[in-house]
Batch of 3 targets.
Target 1
Amino acid sequence: MAGLAMMHGPKPRIVWFALSDRPVRARAAEAVLEAGKDDDDVAARATEGVPVFGDANATEAMKRHLARQLLARTLRGLAGQ
């Protein structure tokens, strides 16, 4: 499971829940988003630098995959696609 909170605007903020032992900002993805890069580039960096722990529900790899997908869908939704 992965949870996402996002503030979009001139200083975007992306925070992950349930990937780690505490909420964690996705600073690499924020920087790419703030630089105006393509949404796919932002999603590709969804968990870069973020400590991700596997648990009884999902492996680390699955959580990273879900985080990328969730961020990509969120960005598409914000863009109205």
Target 2
Amino acid sequence: MRGAARKRSLRLGQRPRRAPERSWPCARLSSAEYLVSEIKRNKRGALLGLAALALAVAGVAFGLYKLISQNQYTTCGERRPL
């Protein structure tokens, strides 16, 4: 009965849908394994993301360096000795 009902629900010329085939085994991957496999698949994107992260860290470090090493004057207008 199910098959007959299914055939009636399909339109003329339509094929029944199949479950998508998976290319990985049924065992679940840990998040680290998933991350490594995605990086291996998308090497260019991973390198671009890593470069952007490195530039952001360098920019923050440079900004903090400039902020900390500003010329600090005493109330008399003289520079502090090092």
Target 3
Amino acid sequence: MPPPPKILEHVVHAFDLTTDDILGRARTKHIAWARQVAMYLCREALGYSYPEIGKCFNRDHTTAMHAISTVAAYMRRDVVFAEWVTTILSDLNAPVRRFHPVLHAD
């Protein structure tokens, strides 16, 4: 089960990546962060379960749990990022908006 195309479209465009990057095995910081955001959007916008999200991204459900928790925590610390995500969540049919993130740092 692939992720919903509209979510992929938003994330791929916003992070200047390809669908193959998001769905692939690469774990570079930029790609992993974009993938985590896509997982978060699947959970929040569509109510997908952790196992469903894991299947969408060819990952384990615990990876999806970690991704969603990480994005939610970052949203609490970065108001601009949180507003960007909220905008996408409010209307996934809106034109794709580009976000220029500072690399996610843990």
